Hints:
This protein is an alpha+beta fold and 283 residues long. The protein has two domains: 2-143, START domain (Alpha-D-Glucose-1,6-Bisphosphate, Chain A, domain 4), CATH 3.30.530.20; 151-282, Alpha-D-Glucose-1,6-Bisphosphate, Chain A, domain 4. The protein is built from seven helices and 15 strands. It has helices at 14-22, 24-30, 91-94, 125-143, 161-169, 171-177, 262-282, and strands spanning 2-10, 39-41, 49-53, 59-68, 72-82, 85-86, 99-108, 111-120, 151-157, 184-191, 198-205, 211-222, 226-231, 236-243, 248-254. The strands form two sheets. Strands 1, 2, 3, 4, 5, 6, 7 and 8 form an eight-stranded antiparallel β-sheet that branches. Strands 9-15-14-13-12-11-10 form a seven-stranded antiparallel β-sheet, with helices on both faces. The protein is globular. The chain starts with a strand and ends with a helix.
Amino acid sequence: MKQLEFKTTIHAPAAKVWQLLWNDTSYRHWTSVFHDSSFAKTDWKEGSAVHFLGDTGDGMYSKILSKKENLEMIFEHLGVVKNFAEQPMDEDTKKWSGSKEQYFLKETNGVTELVAKVDIVDDFEDYFSSTFPKALEKIKDLAEGKIKEQIIIAAEVNAPLEKVWNFFTGPEHVTKWNQASPDWHCPAAENDLRTGGSFKSTMAAKDGSFSFDFGGTYLQVDPMKSFHYIMEDNREVLVEFIQNENSVRVRESFHPEGTNPHDMQRGGWKAILESFKKYTESN
C-alpha cells in the first residue's frame, strides 16, 4: 500500500471549504467524479461510522478517526458494502482494510490550502492519480464561485440505447412515466427535440386538485448521447445517456431552486427517473 497526496490552493476561507467538503449536496457534487451517484451516510461525528455509497447501495464502510472543524478530517476504510449491507472480510478486502483518507485545511489571509492524502493499493494508483485532482478542482470552483452547486441523480436502465432515448424523449411515452408518485400523472406532453426547440409537460394530481406545466428550451441536443436545456426560471439541466454493455445509465445534473430543501428536490427528481426506469424495462 502506498500514499498519494493531492493539494490545491483555494481563494476562500477554510470554513467555506469545510462546509462544501461535507455538506450533503456539495459532497455529492465533488465526489461525482468517482461515481455519479456518490453519497455518504453518516452523522459526520468523530468516531462515527460512514457508509460511502452509490445509488445501488454498493460501496465501503469506514470510520471517522479524527474531525477537527475547519482543519482536518481523517477516515479509516474498513470493508465492503453490498446492497446497503456490510460484507464479511475477504482476501481482497484485507489488502486495503485499514487504509486512510485524510483531508487537511490551512488558511492564510483568507486563502485555504487543501491537502488530501489517500492510501491505495498499486492497482488503483492510476485511477486516483487521474480522478482526485478533478475532485479537488470541483471543490475549488465551488468555493471560488466559478460553478454553482448541482444535484446529480442517475439510474441504470436495462434496455438498448435507442429504446431508452426514445422512451425518455417521446411525448407518447413521457405521459406514461412522468410522475413522482402514484397519485400524480402527466396528462399531456409535447417535445420539439432539437437545439433551440422547446418541450412542455403537464404534471397533475389525479384528484384534480392541482396541476402545473414543466418546460424548457434546448440549448444543445446530441442525439442518443445527451441534451442540455434551460428551464423557465433560468436553471439549467444536463441529461446524459451513457451506454454500458447491457444497459444505459441515465444521468441528470441540475441546479437546485432556492425554495425547497435539496434532499426534497433530489428525491422528487429521482422518483421520476425511477418511474422512467420501471416503465422502460417493463414495456
